[in-house]
Design goal:
Elements (H helix, E strand, L loop, with lengths): L10 E4 L4 H12 L4 E5 L9 H9 L4 E5 L9 H4 L4 E4 L12 H21 L6 E5 L33 H18 L5 E7 L1 E3 L10 H7 L15 E5 H13 L5 E5 L2 E3 L1 H12 L12 H7 L7 H7 L9 H7 L6 H14 L9
Helix pairs in contact: 1-7, 4-5, 8-12
The structure holds NADP nicotinamide-adenine-dinucleotide phosphate.
The site of NADP nicotinamide-adenine-dinucleotide phosphate has 28 residues, from helix 1, strand 7 and helix 6.
Amino acid sequence: MSVKIDPTKPVFVTGASGYVAGWIIRYLLEDGYTVRGTVRNPEKASGLDHLRALAEAHPGRLTLHKADLLDEGSYAEAMAGCELVIHTASPFLLGRVKDPEAQLVRPALEGTRNVLGSVNATPSVKRVVLTSSVVAIHGDNVDMKGRGAFTEEDWNTTSSVDHQPYPYSKTVAEKAAWELAEAQDRWDMVTIHPGLVLGPALTTASKSGSMTTMKSFVDYSLATGAPDLAMGMVDVRDVARAHIAAGFTPEAHGRYITNARTVTMLDIGRALRKRFGRSYPFPYTLVPKAMFRLVAPVAGFSREFVDKNVGWPLAFDNSRSVAELGLDYRPFEETVGDHFQQMIDDGVAHKPWF
Ligand code: NAP
């Protein structure tokens, strides 16, 4: 299916206040498009300043609309007349989550069904771009056994609400989305699968796992060493570009792994030390797996997570995103360096002492 989106029609973006959505909206506006963004509370006193500044810089081209993932039909009214829907809204929480069903799975799954229910009820929509994740491709690093790299053909079959609830939430939400997409033929769907997204944030309000990961480089939690945990990683600006390319490339189709490379926290720490010096508690060494396993529950990781992830290699094949969406991934040193610089500028990290 080839889908041509009318560039004069507003682009609909859910979860507009989020870390990833902020960059999608900024680039859409800079490229000349009009955007309708949804947030839970458009009147919120804090957390929307960057969107209000964008609206002021691009008069008449960004409006914010109230919608909640758990409120059926709340997306429909603002969606009227849009041809392209970019669905990013979904909670991304790392570490210990008190009630994973309520905090992760319900909003991801019911939210996706609600947004796509509104898509079904909105005749103008031609394409949906859904923010999925590499965690809908694989659950634990040990799942790599016997493969060279994960591809778009792979699905996470090992996560559950009790083990790896965030990956589980993304997997069930994406599956439900494909079921709804395949049950009709008016609109098509393209899914974007980033690894851990890092890079400068346009807001300090996001509680995304991307922020908590970077904060661990200043809160001394890695000062004595980092676990040997390989993870996918990609720049937020490249992820934003991937969503826009997926929306406006008529032939784009299916799933796109959008991951620059795999890194460990030690790799990130080394890159940060090179750029910012020795004033910060960046890790110097790896924590032996047995020792990490011992303290893991205190750090918010289960021992099962440690067994199935620490020390295992991980690789993703991103060639479809390069060939078909034209992505040219930034070097990871630039991504993490720019992210940390922004944390200094925002006062989240102190200035270098020497
Ligand atoms: P984020 O900054 O926390 O943004 C999440 C957004 O979801 C927020 O705008 C939030 O809106 C919205 N949201 C959460 N619960 C909601 C609800 N019940 N109703 C309406 N909106 C709700 O996280 P992010 O990192 O930008 O993540 C955006 C998307 O990228 C998610 O789908 C995530 O799974 C995916 N992703 C992220 C990464 C990553 O490393 N960051 C990697 C792969 C995929 P409020 O402001 O109203 O809370």
